[in-house]
C-alpha cells in the first residue's frame, strides 16, 4: 500500500489528509465502475487556516505550502510513503499566484508529483466517486462542473466544463448568497406594502439584521457581503420547515437553478465535440440545451453537493423536478464523498500520470 496526501482549502478553513491506497481492491461504487480506481481511505487528517484575500490577491498557495510542511512534520514516519499530493482550493484559478510555478517547487522538495485543481473538480471527484457526470456545488456561491469520465485506460482528459461560479453580483444561482438576496428582496416588498407573501421572511430578517432601514448600510459597505447574505439562507430554510410557502418556493427555485447549471455544464461537452466536426450553425439545438443524451448507453449521473444542499427537501425537490424536465435520461445520485476524498483521488490520478492539465482548472 502507498499513501496520498489530499488537501482541501476553502474560505472557512483548510484540511490535509493522509489517504491509504489499496491497489488490490476491486473498487466499485453504486454510481458505476470508477475506471479501476483503488480504494482510498482517510487514515488521519489535520486542520489548517482559511485563505485570506488582500490587495495582492489570495494567499492560497502559501496555505498549500504550509499544509504540506505541517503534514510532513505531523506524520514524519509515514510521509516517506506518500506517492502523490492532490490539492483542491477555492480561488486558485483567479486570485492566487500561478500554481504552475509553485507545484514544481513542492514536487522537487518532497520528491513526489503534486497536482492542483479548482475546488469544484475535487468536489466532482469526491461526489461521483471518480466517474463521469455533473455536479452542482451550493455553498455561499454556486458552481456546476462536468466531465465525461475517464477513458478505457483510466485517463482524465482536459474536458472539464463549468457553468456559473460568477460570484454573487453576476450569478452563483441557487447558492446561499443568491437565496439570501432573493429572500431579503421579498421581505422588503412586504415591508413596502407590495407583496404580503414575505411576512415570515421580513420577521426573520428583522430578527437577524435589525430594522430594514439599516440593511443597506450593513450590506453595501462590507467586503464580505456574500457571506452575510448567505447567513439569511439559514433563516429561509427554518421558515420553510415551519410551513412558510414563500420560503419553500425560494428553496425550490434554488434547486431548479442548481439543476439548470448541472445540465448546462454537461451539455458543454457535446457542444464542444460537435464544434470540432461541424459548422457552428449545424450544432443541433437539443445538444446545446442538454436534452439529447441518448447517443450513449452510459447512464447520466448528476448530484447536488455543498452546505446549502442540506437546506431541506424543498430544494432537493426543485433540483430533481427540474433535472427530470430538462433531461429524462438523467439519474440523480447521492454524493459518494466530499472534496477531501476528491483531493485524494486527484493526488492518486496525478501520481499515476492519468490527468491532463487544463487552463484555469487543473495544474499538473
Walk me through what this model shows.
The protein is of the alpha/beta class and 364 residues long. The chain is built from 11 helices and 15 strands. The strands form 4 sheets. Strands 5-2-1-8-9-15 form a 6-stranded mixed β-sheet. The chain has a 5-stranded mixed β-sheet with strand order 12-11-10-13-14, sandwiched between helices. A two-stranded antiparallel ribbon has the order 3-4. A hairpin with a 3-residue loop joins strand 10 and strand 11. Helix 4 packs across helix 8.
Rg computed from alpha carbons, rounded to a whole number of angstroms: 21 Å
- The helical percent reads 40-55%
Strand content: 15-25%
Q: Report the sheet with the most strands, covering strand number, pairing sense and barrel closure.
A: 6 strands, mixed
Uncertain regions: pLDDT < 50 for 5+ in a row?
Answer: 26-35, 271-296
Rough shape?
globular
Q: So how many helices?
A: 11
Calculate the mean pLDDT score and round it.
Answer: 85
Question: Which structural class matches the secondary elements?
Answer: alpha/beta
Strand order of the largest sheet: 5-2-1-8-9-15
One letter per element, helices H and strands E, the order comes to EEEEEEEHEHEHEEEHHHHHHEHEHE
Number of strands: 15
List the helices and strands and how they pair.
Layout: E1 2-9, E2 14-22, E3 28-29, E4 32-33, E5 39-48, E6 53-54, E7 57-58, H1 60-74, E8 82-89, H2 99-110, E9 114-118, H3 119-127, E10 133-138, E11 142-147, E12 161-164, H4 176-191, H5 199-209, H6 215-219, H7 225-241, H8 245-275, H9 285-289, E13 300-305, H10 313-326, E14 330-332, H11 339-351, E15 362-363
Parallel strand pairs: 1-8, 8-9, 10-13, 13-14
Antiparallel strand pairs: 1-2, 2-5, 3-4, 6-7, 9-15, 10-11, 11-12
Helix pairs in contact: 3-11, 4-5, 4-7, 4-8, 5-7, 7-8, 8-10
